[in-house]
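Supplementary Text 2. Reproducibility record for the structural model of the 327-residue chain.

All settings were left at their defaults, and a single model was retained for analysis rather than an ensemble. We include the record here because the model underlies the residue-level annotations in Supplementary Table 4.
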Amino acid sequence: MEQSKPDQSVRVAFLGPEGTYTHQAALQEFGSQPQAHFVSTNSIPQCFQQLENDHTIDYSVVPLENSTNGQVVFTYDLLRDRMMAGLNDSADNNRVIPTIEVVGEQYVSITHCLISPNDIKLDALPIYKKIRIHSHPQVWGQVSGYLEQLKKKCPNTFVERIDTASTSEAVSKAQSSPKEDSVLNLAIASETAAKLNKAFIIDREINDILGNTTRFLIFKRRSHTDTTQPANSKRVALMTFAVKQDDPGALVEVLTVLKNHSVNMCSINSRPLNSALLGRKWQYLFFIEYYKTKPKTNEEAFYSDMSNSCSSWCLWGTFARNERYYN
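Retained model, structure tokens:
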């Protein structure tokens, strides 16, 4: 049953617990609003489900991509699955109208720390026979060089990686792990996560590449009116589509539509698409982003040509390019 909010507060779902980089992105977007309330979720799928099913939730913040590791595939695949599910309900030719839409983006600088439940020094690590390091799977590719150097400093120590649902959870997992002789539990997370959990940072800025940044999208339930955009802001649109066949030039045909309408594409990605609806196992759904500079009067012609060139497509929304994109 739908719930309703008793006041005008803004409730924002994010990938929790508190102290995650997603929490920081939510704070950057909504922290200045005095009536903003932040609702922690256990997973990216739950972030979407909360927004779709609980009408006390106004927005949801999810990670999309990282400047070092690329796609956050969980988010891409959740959008893919929702588009394909929407084909059954599509009354507008082959265009899917989503129930949620993108209305903003945030960029968070990712600075990882090696964190311990106890106040120990980095030089003490070689005395342990085993070190368990807890963190989110996305982190391993961002600190692989550092971990190799750590293993060299601890030649007689077995280093084990433990996946967690979030970097903040990694700290609490390290703290709550049973104590064992000659075994040390550590976490890789942010300085904020360490402070919130009252843990100890034993090494800072352990990223292999400095300037590592994660991009987050802000979603809301779809409305029938245009989302207000800041004055003079550059606007970006997110669209997904599948080509009609695997013939040579099928993707080029779609991209030519963008060229013919002077649409400036700024990003393209793809994810596997195994759909009985489209009749083939090996196919891909393409994700594109483009700058919206054309007046609205030209949009319908562009959308019509997309419908003629794609087997299915979905416009997820338009939003203002965040100024952090340029930093």
